[in-house]
Write a structure and sequence with these properties.
The chain has one domain. It is 29% helix and 48% strand. It has helices at 2-18, 74-84, and strands at 21-37, 40-50, 52-54, 60-62, 64-67, 89-97. It is elongated.
């Protein structure tokens, strides 16, 4: 009995270790435009949502990354993208575990 419990625990542990974990990320930013109306100026704010394009991989989208070792580079890519594009107002990124 003890042997079967240990065997089941070992199989479950190996299965858990071998499973890939994935993250999905996107970013958003806003633009503000001033429009002339009959009542004066009006600010219009628009929010855009997109994903990082990986130019090193033939311009493929970098929105999902999976890893067995639980080490991800996708979040750092989104941080760097924001740092390299200061013109994006209210830049924020979100990453979710899948």
């Amino acid at each position: 009995m003890y042997r079967s419990i240990v065997l089941i625990a070992l199989v479950a542990f190996i299965f858990f270790i071998s499973c890939e974990k994935c993250k999905k990320c996107s970013y958003s930013y806003t633009t503000t435009t001033i429009i002339q109306t009959v009542n004066g100026e009006q600010e219009v704010t628009t929010t855009f949502t997109s994903v990082v394009i990986d130019t090193s991989l033939a311009d493929t989208t970098f929105d999902t990354e999976c890893s067995k070792e639980n080490t991800f580079t996708i979040e750092q890519s989104y941080i760097n993208y924001g740092l390299n594009h200061p013109e994006l107002d209210n830049y924020t990124y979100t990453c979710k575990d899948l």
